[in-house]
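A brief tutorial aside. Many learners find it easier to grasp structure tokens once they have seen a single protein encoded end to end. The record that follows does exactly this for Cytochrome c heme lyase subunit CcmF. Read the sequence first, then the structure, and try to relate runs of similar tokens to stretches of the chain.
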Amino acid sequence: MMPEIGNGLLCLALGIALLLSVYPLWGVARGDARMMASSRLFAWLLFMSVAGAFLVLVNAFVVNDFTVTYVASNSNTQLPVWYRVAATWGAHEGSLLLWVLLMSGWTFAVAIFSQRIPLDIVARVLAIMGMVSVGFLLFILFTSNPFSRTLPNFPIEGRDLNPLLQDPGLIFHPPLLYMGYVGFSVAFAFAIASLLSGRLDSTYARFYSSVDAGGVDLLDARHCARFRMGLLRTRLGRLVVLGSGRKRLVYAVAGGDCADALTGGH
């Protein structure tokens, strides 16, 4: 029953994201302040529905619900509970759900902390972030659903979490990585909103630069966690190549330069 609730919450989130993508923009076109202000309510509802679905998946791992294909493929009864929780984002389907959770969290954060920004800009920004969420939710529901069942023939024991991922750093590494990456969607949304409105107001330029700097800081923290994991595995005789870090460094440097440019170098 619980996996069906999680799947239903994802469907609800998709409907809310669609409303967030369309209704506030309609309000901007009509000059209707109430329709534009509804974007903040939709952002809150989107976050709550995705968070509910994520908690359902965490619960499925904690109680060893092997009727869920994703749980049976990435956990077992012998796995410590903290690794079972971390296994929620340990593979493809769960990591996508974590991505959407953080995306909705950033959307909600923009809705809360954008009180000084003109309402039409807020409506555009949240609508664009809603469109991005729609794309990810459609991808999850139709190609990578973490709530797919193994019924009627389900195993009494799961496989296991990937041994390479059984490290305390895993609990912090992916969330930090995704929070940094997904944070740049706020930058994207502000850029598109600025193009649509034809102006770049200094108030929301400062807001954007703060978010951008936060995303860079999260990527830096993620590098520390990954470096620690690499050292531990090297001691175990397994050399972990961190070449993909160069790609993240490009994001961090570009984001830092952009934030510096928006604040005038101060």
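Self-check: Residues 215-225, 227-246 have pLDDT under 50 and may be disordered. If you spotted this yourself, you are ready for the next section.
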